[in-house]
Amino acid sequence: MQVCIIYDKVRFEEKALYDKAQEKGLKALMVDAKTITLDTDSKKEDLALGDVILQRSVSHYRGLYLTACLEFLDYPVINRFSVAETCGNKLVTSLVLAKNNIPTPKTHFAFSAESAIEVIRKTGLPLVLKPIVGSWGRGVFPLRDEETANMIVEMREEDDSPLARIYYVQEMIDRPPRDIRCIVVGDRVVTAIYRYSAENEWRTNVARGGKAELAPVTKELEDLALRAAKAVGGGIVGVDLMEDKAKGLVVHEVNNTVEFRGAATVSVNDIPGAMIDYAVSIAKK
Ligand SMILES: Nc1ncnc2c1ncn2[C@@H]1O[C@H](COP(=O)(O)OP(=O)(O)O)[C@@H](O)[C@H]1O
Ligand SMILES: [Mg+2]
How many A from CA of 171 to the centre of ligand 2? Predict the structure, then answer.
């Protein structure tokens, strides 16, 4: 059994997965996404990428389109293209969560600066404006006064990316200074952590200095995390939830190439081990 880890940058996670696969007596392969090429006549054997692939590219689009190519060659890839496509886009994710009746923050969508400003004015502040593609809290803006909100929309209009002009405006959740990250592997919640925001930081991302603490996996949390993972198509995902003082738990995003550096420091379960076991189970299907 050969497990292939595709990366574009080797982080803690990729190293942990590689080491774990070897520890389990599997043949592990590390392949740099930036070196792979193929064409419409390519065959699976030409690439020799083993029995199952863990797509771990940091670049969302690189990982996404390479996965499409690898699925074309009939490689089982975790996560599947359709899952990566949904999770990589906050707008699509919100629609999928809402469609599946999974509690999620109320989110407004607008397709021009004028209508975004109109939505903000009508809904009332505070709100949160997010880029529909992105991670690590980048570009996630709490909007607390109308003047700043209008300025930020104006800035987005100047942005070169066409995606910057798709407006995703979310209610601001009244929550403690933390959120919850659940690492879901197949049909199991391997670990849940609280992520406490760093000083002078509203976002709780570990990439922004957020601190991890073990969270109890209550029945409610487990049920919601598994439903959210299933709604996007399953695989290995990070389901992020917030504790709304009024509504209770709400799922705000599902991460496709889940980082677990923070979670691994506090988890009692073996996170990379669960991921490798899952990859093997997919290869055997
Ligand atoms: N609607 C919201 N209300 C309150 N806090 C939020 C809201 N949306 C995001 N946050 C905070 O900002 C962080 C980053 O937002 P998120 O949607 O997860 O984007 P990213 O994909 O960049 O991590 C979240 O982890 C949370 O701490
Ligand atoms: Mg997040």
Answer: 15
